[in-house]
């Protein structure tokens, strides 16, 4: 999982505001097929939202951690049931990130 600076996270949150969830993680949990769909969506879009419906907060946190670890994606934000993920393309990124802020 890649760590981004606060200004980069803020930039991605602003870009993701208008996005709709492209994958839904529901009653069957985090299956190989769901991971494959999230991976394909990240390959195509770079920045996506995933609707995560879990029994409790702990389960949702486990799902988020597993997705980020398995797919080398960065968690941008979790807001309600929506998880925003980012994974930059190797070339020709649709979401060029600003330079990270330097600590003063």
TrEMBL record:
GO molecular function: RNA binding
Gene3D superfamilies the UniProt entry points to: YhbY-like
Presence of keyword RNA-binding: yes
Record PANTHER family: RNA-BINDING PROTEIN YHBY (PTHR40065:SF3)
Superkingdom in the source lineage: Bacteria
Record bears the keyword Iron: no
Ranges for domain CRM: 2-98
Keywords assigned by UniProt, alphabetized: RNA-binding
This protein's name: RNA-binding protein
InterPro entries xref list: RNA-binding_CRM, RNA-binding_domain, RNA-binding_YhbY, YhbY-like_sf
């Amino acid at each position: 999982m890649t760590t981004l600076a606060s200004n980069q996270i803020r930039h991605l949150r602003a870009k993701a505001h208008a996005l709709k969830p492209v994958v839904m993680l529901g009653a069957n949990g985090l299956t190989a097929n769901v991971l494959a769909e999230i991976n394909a969506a990240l390959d195509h879009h770079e920045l996506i939202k995933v609707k995560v419906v879990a029994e409790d907060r702990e389960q949702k946190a486990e799902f988020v951690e597993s997705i980020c670890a398995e797919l080398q994606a960065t968690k941008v934000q979790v807001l309600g049931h929506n998880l925003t993920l980012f994974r930059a393309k190797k070339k020709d990124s649709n979401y060029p990130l600003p330079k990270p802020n330097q600590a003063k």
